[in-house]
Design goal:
42% strand; 3 helices; nine-stranded antiparallel β-sheet; 149 residues; alpha+beta
């Protein structure tokens, strides 16, 4: 990040705080050798890992178990030309311990789509990055021209 590009780098804890406040994120993974992005609801566990809940027979569960994925959340104010984005990169793993699965059934994220058998997927927060744009500053801190729409 260039020091005058208008973005402020967010520290790890600030990223995790914002991540914990977002209701929806996007899982970025590979599907059939192509990039795929899927919006999902989620929660964080005590180790700051991202938890997803999905159908056990879903393409998502099959395609990300055991691989490195990215998970992104953001908030944007188009009027104020401001916003932030946080990305978590890490290994995704289906939770296969029955006791942990039972615990997550009570405490983890709730699926928005009913499924006869759910699985939980944990994404380790191995790399956490974020940035924020405030007041629409751009290169060299110059304000963009007003919109003419």
């Amino acid at each position: 990040m260039h020091p005058d590009d208008g973005f402020r780098e967010l520290g790890r804890q600030e990223c995790l705080d914002r991540l914990g406040q977002a209701p929806i994120g996007r899982i970025v993974h590979t599907q059939n050798a192509l990039p795929a992005v899927l919006p999902v609801n989620f929660s964080l566990d005590a180790r700051s890992a991202v938890l997803l809940r999905t159908s056990a027979d879903s393409e998502l569960a099959r395609s990300i178990d055991g691989v490195v994925v990215a998970f992104e959340v953001d908030a944007v104010d188009a009027v104020a030309h401001s916003g932030w984005s946080v990305v978590v990169t890490g290994h995704a793993k289906v939770v296969d311990d029955p006791d942990e699965h039972d615990h997550l059934t009570r405490t983890g994220p709730r699926s928005w789509v009913a499924s006869p058998q759910d699985v939980f997927i944990r994404i380790a927060s191995e790399l956490v990055t974020g940035r924020e744009l405030v007041d629409g500053r751009t290169m060299q801190g110059v304000q963009p021209p007003p919109e003419t729409r």
